[in-house]
Amino acid sequence: TCNYTHNRTGHSYSFTGTYDQVVSTFYNACRDNMTWFKSTRNIVGMHSIEDNSDAGWNGTTLALMLMRAMFVDYKLSQNPITVYAPNASGTNSILFDQHLSYDPDCVSWNADATYDKVRGIQPQGIQFFWYDLDNDGDLDVQSFNNTMTVSADTLINTYGAERGQWNYYRVRAKDNEGVVTYKTGKFYLNPLGTPEPASLSLLAVGALAFLRRKR
Length: 215
What we know:
The structure is a single chain. The chain has five helices and eleven strands, in the order ββαααβββββββαββα. By secondary structure, the chain is an alpha+beta fold. Mean pLDDT is 75; it is low at 4-9, 39-62, 199-205 and 207-215.
């Protein structure tokens, strides 16, 4: 049982449950931006908009904010890294993009006691990515960036990739606590002679030139 009593007001609250239940309650409240977690008077750590003089028992104290953060961090740390291995295609090269990957306990706190995921490589999150480019179980290339570009020649001549079909690869992410997660994706090498996709900026320039000619 978690008990809290404010000396001046005598306000008290008790939360009964296992440690995991307490953690889950605070974690879910943070995650879902629950109103009761921020603005009501009837649970420890809440902020009262009715009487600022009661701020001593609400969540404006550093100790209670730290308690929230510790609960959430503990809960999040139980979850594995989320690794994205999106399908990719290209003619002359393949771009492997891990911008969406994230370590669940690497978050940024907002002023309202909610948090946002921090994605990609971070000092307190994912440290690096390892790529198994031919999906044979051996790690081939280590990357300390969220993106990595590999030429078609390298993929074909070194890792046995073939044009005109899907080739499978595997990526491994490791965080600052040594947790490792794997994910499998695939890439497609277009047959030679296939033009690379034009960028939006080039398309815009082409459209502008066409309009000028029409005038």
